[in-house]
Design a protein that fits this description.
The chain is 47% helix and 15% strand.
């Protein structure tokens, strides 16, 4: 088995690779080395990845669980995106000390602000555990496979972590389960805010410019890792010291040119490049439009309340940004999947696969089985989206749902107090997280409008019974806004979940009776019971069947495409991509240069605009052309540039590194013309949008006056 799998890797990774496409596994990046050298790389294989001595991987961290950051000094200084630090920055802000809107710079380490909840992990090693996992799961399929995979994964992970709470181990599937790797990390938990530009610059362009090029956003923020005096992870303490990294990235301000080598390390979240035509078609027709509609309504509700009160704005702004980012993403993805005719292209590929399979004694009926499971699942796909995106968008719905595990335990009449304590602790932890972003007025509107939307859009035979048994029976007609508003008012007035005193009283003496009398619990349980009993089994059956087919499909493709490019989908583990700085032509007679300048930013400037206003200090610097050593050789200040590197969500904050291993920018976005990239990579249009490190340093130095940070870095001219 292992010999066969290694032969698949040889097929996938020893071939001539197109430089722009591919998210490569670090421990196997040596297979790509010749191509990387041809493009201009000056580093050795061991400089890229090694477990025996310091390498570039040791300067890269997964930041806050969903982004990437890089170490840029020997004192643990981190650079990531502004939108990656947004939660922490907003959480540290108040109306009186509004770091989000006004920016913040620590001019010495004593001024740095602890960022509760922010952690980083360093990759220590990767190891192939395919044989061990395959032996344990045997021929199991579906839920049995999932159970056995979880059991052996935990065994392997526990073996690695032992009693060290700062060592993190993850067993991950690659090539849709054809290869299994163990990844071991070291987690640091004392992370502090060092600096951020004001939101007007960190989010310059707002939703309008999001996913667009040309771009002028200074999407960066800075943090620092702290450790115990032994340089090992430790909880926050005033006596902790800056972390001493194995490796940090030097910073180049030489500037970049068209065709220059560019390399990106990071933690891309998820891609689905090997999705079949049936899945793409379902996304275009049902899934994506549903997500967009729901999020559009959520955002409009939040905007209304955020505009009325600055305190509400600070409480909700991070959540709003997260929702808005992928609201626009799904709009763009749908548009580009259609424009690039991806469904038809996938069908042609599948026809070729079926022909190859029939000629090579493989599974020629694989695509027929795909068609069958999608046909069976399609009637429920929209409901699954509305359950996750619409029903659960209401905080009251999530609070009510959180009572379900406790209720089931209470029904058993188990008197084990340790078990009860675990359920209550989980309930309190979940509520605490939800209430951080809870605004009473916003949530009343959210529940009312989402309840109506759910009824209007989900097929009527699939709806929960709360509508007929309670809402329409007691509060009015299905098509009246007042019906849902009155019902929501009733729920808010008859629940212990949103009142801390009543909630704590319940936790002190919980009972099934109290839960059943609670209006929010009644509301949420109706949806939860309906979905988990009637539709979740269909969703899970589809997911399991698709997983099995995908594993077989990938295995077949790797055999079929010997001599062709192949790499695993992104799965939130470290990857390396390489390519070059490159302009592009988005449409007929239109050319996009590879960089933008402060001149272009000022051309977009609109005083008082939520999206295009800028601080007076920047205007003054611009008028003086006071760019210092950060100006380009053409005399302008470059703000952003683009490369043809292959990235996706999770790569936010990733370092863009030149041929000498020096930092030249922070990746923060993709471009509109290639929004299909998570499903279908397009070589012609795909670009990564990068904040030029010279613009970053300019803002730190000239606006933030944080020369302490400039001196701390290894800046190379």
């Amino acid at each position: 088995m292992k010999k066969f799998l290694l032969s698949l890797f040889a097929v996938a990774l020893m071939l001539p690779a197109r430089a722009d496409e591919g998210m490569w596994v670090p421990m196997l990046i040596g297979k790509n080395y010749d191509e990387m050298q041809r493009l201009g790389l000056k580093l050795s294989k061991d400089d890229l990845y090694s477990i025996n001595h310091a390498s570039l991987k040791d300067a890269i961290v997964q930041f806050a669980g969903g982004c990437t950051a890089e170490v840029i000094s020997d004192n643990g200084l981190l650079l990531t995106n502004h939108h990656c630090g947004y939660d922490a920055i907003a959480g540290l802000s108040t109306v009186e000390k509004n770091y989000l809107d006004n920016g913040f710079w620590a001019h010495n380490m004593s001024e740095e602000l602890p960022a509760p909840g922010v952690t980083v992990i360093f990759l220590q090693k990767m190891e192939d555990v395919t044989d061990e996992v395959m032996k344990a799961v045997g021929n199991a399929k579906g839920e049995e496979y999932n159970k056995k995979f979880a059991e052996i994964s935990k065994k392997i992970e526990d073996r690695e972590t032992g009693k060290d709470k700062y060592t993190v181990a993850n067993v991950k599937e690659y090539f849709n389960g054809n290869q299994i790797l163990l990844l071991v990390y070291k987690r640091y938990v004392d992370v502090r805010l060092v600096g951020t530009p004001p939101k007007s610059l960190g989010k310059f362009g707002g939703d309008t410019d999001n996913w667009m090029w040309p771009r002028h956003t200074s999407d960066f923020s800075m943090f620092r890792i702290y450790a115990g005096k032994d340089n090992m992870p430790a909880p926050y303490a005033a006596t902790n010291v800056p972390y001493k990294p194995k490796k940090f990235l030097p910073v180049s301000i030489k500037g970049e040119h068209e065709g220059d080598y560019a390399m990106i390390y990071g933690y891309p979240g998820r891609t689905n490049r090997y999705e079949v035509s049936y899945g793409v078609d379902l996304s275009i027709r049902d899934v994506n439009p549903s997500i967009v509609s729901i999020r559009d309504l959520r955002l409009s509700i939040m905007r209304k309340h955020m505009a009325e009160d600055k305190t509400i704005y600070l409480k909700l702004t991070s959540l709003y940004a997260r929702i808005a980012n992928y609201w626009k993403y799904f709009i763009g993805q749908t548009e580009q999947l259609k424009r690039l005719n991806v469904v038809e292209k996938k069908k042609k590929q599948e026809e070729k696969f079926t022909q190859w399979a029939s000629e090579n004694n493989y599974d020629a009926g694989l695509m027929d089985r795909y068609e069958k499971i999608y046909a069976e699942y399609t009637p429920y796909a929209k409901h699954a989206v509305y359950y996750g995106e619409c029903f659960r968008s209401s905080a009251v719905a999530r609070l009510g749902s959180s009572l379900e595990p406790l209720r089931k335990w209470l029904e058993k009449k188990d008197n084990n107090q340790d078990s009860l304590k675990k359920y209550i602790t989980a309930l309190k932890t979940g509520r605490r997280a939800i209430m951080k972003e809870f605004d009473y007025g916003t949530e009343k509107d959210m529940m009312a409008q989402m309840t109506k939307m759910y009824y209007d859009e989900v097929p009527k035979p699939q709806l929960p019974d709360i509508y007929q048994k309670v809402i329409f029976k007691k509060f009015g007609k299905y098509n009246s806004d007042k019906t849902y508003e009155d019902y929501t008012a009733y729920v808010f007035n008859n629940t212990f979940l949103i009142d801390s005193v009543k909630f704590n009283a319940f936790c002190d003496a919980p009972s099934v009776e109290k839960i059943d009398k609670d209006a929010a619990a009644e509301y949420a349980m109706s949806y939860v019971d309906n979905f988990t009993k009637n539709y979740l089994p269909k969703v899970e059956a589809f997911s399991n069947q698709k997983k099995e087919l995908s594993k077989e499909y990938i295995k077949g493709l790797m055999e079929m495409k010997q001599g062709k490019l192949f790499y695993p989908d992104a799965n939130s583990t470290m990857r390396i991509t390489y390519g070059k700085v490159l302009s592009y032509d988005p449409q007929d007679a239109v050319h996009y240069n590879y960089f933008t300048t402060l001149d272009g930013l000022m051309a977009k400037y609109k005083p008082g605009s939520d999206e295009f206003d800028v601080p007076q200090q920047l205007i003054d610097l611009y008028k003086k052309k006071d760019y210092g050593r950060y100006a380009d050789e053409d005399g302008t200040l470059h703000t952003c540039f683009i490369t043809n590197n292959d990235i996706t969500g999770g790569n936010s904050g990733s370092p863009v590194i030149n041929a000498n291993g020096e930092l030249i920018g922070a990746a923060f976005d993709g471009n509109w013309e290639a929004m299909s990239g998570d499903i279908a990579f397009d070589k012609k249009y795909k670009r990564t949008i990068v904040c030029d490190v010279r613009y970053i340093l300019f803002l730190i130095d000239k606006m933030g006056h944080a020369k302490n940070l400039i001196k701390e870095m290894d800046i190379r001219e």
